[in-house]
């Protein structure tokens, strides 16, 4: 079987996957499963091995990401329901001051984007942001876009949001490294997008119902800022402590304990337990212990299964030699390998509208070829995350949530969200490329 045939079969299958998801509205799980089978048949995988390969690829991915994604969704649900997300926003605004409200919005959104879906962050905070826009006489194109950008960037780059958690697992990247470097790249990306938002002067008033909703919510009791931040900060501290203690005291009892308590599963479980403090006396109620958990499980099901199917597709890519063929082609064409995960993630995101799907699928596709193209798992992870930020537009639910709730029309949405997301992704990609060629990642 020639290399050309393998590459053509792979390209046709990936194109089929993208078209089926974006144009025919086939669910990503179904689409990836069908494409995996078509690729397997196309490259001559023995019939009796197809099912076993799918199951083994799926299982090996599930074991590393399933519970982490579930726990992350549970934590996000508790922060959402208890008002902790609102408290973090209000405290950030008080810290930055009225003259720098847009920076407070972007910072609070970026913090909340670590455990909570970006769309949900917008829905939670749009009443507060609408009220701030009215008080400071600023455009909702500017403020609404800044609100979405902060969460979008960290949701693409910083675990435990499901997209980057899945990408780190697929690339076999330690979660501590993913969090640290995801934060490093997120900061300039959010800053660049916010600076762009500040240049938008076109006036646009917020929707009246959100201003009214914010006023009515002023009487709501909110948890303290320390309690609100603890569920987010504590897991990150435990994961970093694991890395540091194992480097300083390898194979000692304290290092072994740190390996357990600083594992993604244990660290996020600790974060969820601390998040229960936010619920007060309701912590043992059916609403908290059952209803909220069920809601979180529903939210986690899609990213878990999409990632698992990505692992199955990756298994066929490895077995068929697709990865080596692509990598060899890149080498012969003298294209820097660092651009491959970036382009794949950007393409999937622009066509499908899902940054989570862009991050996860790109990671699954490029993992088998990393050695040949000379890209580390960390650099590939950051490329997948930044590539999946490029050009949010009308095929994205997050785009429409932000545009409609911010009172924008489609033209204003492209001017705000589409351009800002491309700037955020472009700056993040540039930082990643610089770090890669400097030998730091």
In angstroms, what separates the terminal alpha carbons?
36 Å
Largest sheet: none
Helix coverage percent: over 70%
Global shape: globular
Radius of gyration: 22 Å
- Report the mean per-residue pLDDT as an integer: 88
Order of helices and strands: HHHHHHHHHHHHHHHHHHHHH
3D architecture notes:
The protein has 441 residues and is mainly alpha-helical. The chain has one domain. 78% of the residues lie in helices and 0% in strands. It is built from 21 helices and no strands. Helix 4 crosses helix 6 and helix 6 packs parallel to helix 20. The mean pLDDT is 88.
Topology, pairings included?
Elements: H1 3-22, H2 28-42, H3 47-82, H4 84-96, H5 101-112, H6 118-136, H7 140-157, H8 162-170, H9 175-199, H10 208-216, H11 225-248, H12 253-261, H13 264-275, H14 286-320, H15 322-332, H16 339-352, H17 355-366, H18 370-373, H19 377-387, H20 397-405, H21 410-437
Helix pairs in contact: 1-2, 2-14, 3-8, 3-13, 3-14, 4-5, 4-6, 4-11, 5-6, 5-7, 5-9, 6-7, 6-10, 6-20, 7-9, 7-20, 7-21, 8-14, 8-17, 8-19, 9-11, 9-19, 9-21, 11-12, 11-13, 14-17, 16-17, 16-19, 17-19, 19-21, 20-21
Could you name the key traits of this structure?
mainly alpha, 21 helices, globular
Explain briefly what this protein structure is.
The chain is mainly α.
